Amino acid sequence: MATGTAADTLLTPARVHNSAMKAHALITALALLCSACAQTPARTDAMTASAATPLRLATYNTSLYSDEAGGLIAELEGDSAHARKIAAVLQQVRPDMVLLNEFDFDPAHRAADLFQQRYLETAQPGGGQPLHFAYRYLAPVNTGVPSGLDLDNNGVVGGEGRSRGNDAWGYGLHPGQYGMLVLSRYPIDEAQVRTFQLLKWSALPGAIRPVDPRTGKSFYSDTVWPQLRLSSKSHWDVPVKTPGGTVHMLVSHPTPPVFDGPEKRNAARNHDELRLWSEYLGAGEKPWLCDDQGRCGGLARDARFVILGDLNNDPADGDGRHEAIVELIEHPRVLRYPTPRSVGAEQTSLAYAEKGITRRGAPFHATGDFGPKSGTMRLDYVLPSTGFTPVGSGVFWPAQDSPEAAIADGSDHHLVWVDVTP
Fold first, then answer.
1. Where does residue 71 rank: exposed (0-12), middle (13-18), buried (19+ CB within 10 A)?
2. DSSP per position, 244-258
3. What's the chain's average pLDDT?
4. For residue range 373-396, what is the model confidence (pLDDT) as tens digits?
5. CB-based contact 41:53 (threshold 8 Å)
6. Alpha carbons 329 and 267: distance in angstroms, whole number
7. I need a surface site. Which of 87, 132, 188, 249 has the fewest CB within 10 A?
8. Exposed/middle/buried for residue 355 (C-beta within 10 Å: 0-12, 13-18, 19+)
9. H/E segment holding residue 74
10. CA distances from residue 416 to 109, 165, 403, 422 in whole angstroms, order as listed
11. What are phi and psi of 353, to 5 degrees?
């Protein structure tokens, strides 16, 4: 089933229900016979890298965050069962290049050091051999950074708890919460990294300026709107020098399209955060598209890339503006390949369907379980560029009765991986 069209991924509620009834009796046998579908082809660090060696690209929302500044560091300095499970999954999959979402940023990079040294580079129960990444990239994000503005229009600037988080440039209770961490086996060209943390939302052509339907007026005043940053965390272009040539990791973590009001400001922001990547890949000079270093324009037409991240938008389900993620999946520069799937996603989705919580999207394409209100959704993406040849893909969501299931519940999201060759 191709990633390329929304129609390919849609199932009506009736079809999902019928599928649940027909497939329920087959799930146990499928799990026993095909539990490897939720796993990954065996890989070792001793494999000789060459231009012909498949490149494993992955994204994983790790939920390694804390509501307190320094909280993740304290957790990792102890013995974190949560971090051990996340590390075990990475040791099983052994990606060459991976984005970790929801990994708190600290200026001294202490949390990244601890996670790599004490967890990834130590064999974990249910994982595999120690996993070493020689290169990494992390940088400040907008979450938790005070704006000095009343962004939620509650009449107070800052404040406590959620009110403080709402008035940050990106929702967060302290600077760096829900940050990002890029890990790579291959050298990162740091001099050519581009970040778009400071890009203004209003700079995006056709930006959706939220309107309060109760008043018919813009939710953001004329004073606030020009100051707003587009990225809720940041958007990074991280070039990696692989044996097959440079690959640009285009990484982000757009805001969830919920937790707002009737003006749907977060849905609009999520839509436009996704559109930023479509613009970045598009033709034209784009003098408005300037990174934090002052360089303007999009990605070179001949550059190879992979879009990675928890993009917080399902092509068919949930509260997002689905056209934005569909446009990105179907972008002419994005590779068409079979959508990653897993046995665990199908089992969980069909169990929800039996309770009346149905998906329009294919049950086996989900990448996370978000509880009885939302059910399963496909939110996490690995989208390589055209020019690559896809040779495998999957979601690390094992069958419920498999031994690997014991390490798969470290996050409500599941790791997504794709193997490609030049």
1. middle
2. TEEEEEEE--PPPS-
3. 90
4. 899 999 999 999 999 999 999 999
5. no
6. 18
7. 132
8. exposed
9. helix 71-77
10. 25, 29, 19, 20
11. -60, -35
